[in-house]
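Researcher: Let's do a round of design. I'm pasting the structure tokens now; please hold your answer until I've finished.
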């Protein structure tokens, strides 16, 4: 029988697992830094200020600069792509100049907003003048442009097979991409560490699943340990 088969897996009961976890000590200062990193990266300025006062954990960056970044994000999430792009250029014009994929996605979002508003002629003109030249030498851009323009073929674009482009999640996706680019230009981390640690936790559990039956975390939101099931 192979090492990863059920019959050869080690069974670790709940009490033994909890005892092992109790021996792992994580300094509170490290946890505070992790929380502050999340607040700063995601742009929760007021929460970061409050947490700094309560915990004494320094944010490590100028919180006023975060306010500028969040203004860009709010504009984009509200559908005002032009205002977001103008604000980014005020912060650092090289961000859009040096990242053609990001620039295309912002222009694509502008097209989506025109379609959302029902400005068909303006949408077609914008696509031809601003997006088509970008897509001429890039197959990926061309496919995304064709998919976006295809929204015009549907009377109710939100309920169409391409309706995901009209969803708020599309704005969020573009906003996150722009947010990451701004962070990178400011020599900051593009993603908070906390989600990465949770992904690492799930990966580690997947590896351990092949070797043992143990109390695992199925829901990272609650972090509740689920007792191991008996091997058949």
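Researcher: That's everything. Go ahead.
Model: Designed sequence:
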């Amino acid at each position: 029988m192979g090492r990863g088969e059920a019959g050869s897996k080690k069974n670790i009961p709940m009490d033994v697992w909890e005892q092992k976890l109790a021996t792992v000590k994580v300094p509170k200062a490290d946890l505070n830094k992790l929380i502050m990193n999340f607040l700063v990266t995601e742009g929760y300025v007021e929460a970061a200020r409050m947490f700094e006062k309560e915990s004494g954990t320094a944010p490590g960056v100028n919180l006023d600069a975060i306010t500028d970044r969040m203004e860009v994000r709010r504009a984009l999430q509200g559908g005002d792509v032009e205002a977001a792009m103008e604000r980014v250029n005020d912060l650092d014009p090289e961000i859009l100049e040096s990242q053609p994929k990001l620039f295309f996605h912002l222009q694509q979002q502008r097209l989506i907003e025109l379609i959302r508003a029902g400005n068909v002629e303006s949408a077609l003109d914008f696509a031809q003048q601003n997006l088509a030249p970008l897509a001429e030498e890039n197959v990926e851009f061309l496919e995304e442009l064709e998919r976006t323009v295809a929204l015009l073929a549907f009377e109710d674009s939100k309920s169409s097979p391409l309706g995901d482009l009209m969803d708020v999640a599309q704005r969020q996706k573009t906003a996150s991409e722009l947010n990451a680019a701004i962070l990178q230009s400011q020599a900051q981390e593009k993603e908070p560490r906390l989600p990465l640690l949770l992904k690492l936790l799930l990966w580690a559990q997947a590896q351990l699943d092949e070797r043992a039956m143990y109390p695992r975390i199925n829901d990272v939101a609650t972090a509740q340990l689920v007792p191991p099931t008996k091997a058949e």
